Amino acid sequence: MNTISSVLDVTNFGVVGDGTTNNTKKIAEVIGELKKLGGGTVYFPPGEYVTGSIILGDNMTLYLEGGATILGSADPEDYPMITKEDLEGYNREGHTGLVAARNAKNITVTGRGTLDGRGYNWWSNPKNEQRPRAFQPIMCENVRLSGISIINSAMWTVHPMCCRNVTIDGISIKNPADSPNTDGINPESCSNVHVSNCQVDVGDDCVTLKSGTEDDYLQKKYPCENITITNCTMNNGHGGVVIGSEMSGGVRNVTISNCVFNGTDRGIRIKTRRKRGGSVEDIRIDNIMMTNVFAPLTINGYYKCGGTDPNDMELFSLEKKPVEDSTPVFKNIYISNVTAREVKCAAGYIYGIPEMPVTSLHVDNFVCSMTKGDHDVASAPIMAWHIEPTKGHGFYCANMKDVSFNNVHLDVEKTSSIIIEKSELVKVSGLTSEGSNTAVEIKESKDIMISNSMVSPTAKDFIETDAESNATLAVNGVAKSNENQEIVKIVD
Question: Which residues form a coiled coil (predicted)?
Answer without folding.
Answer: none
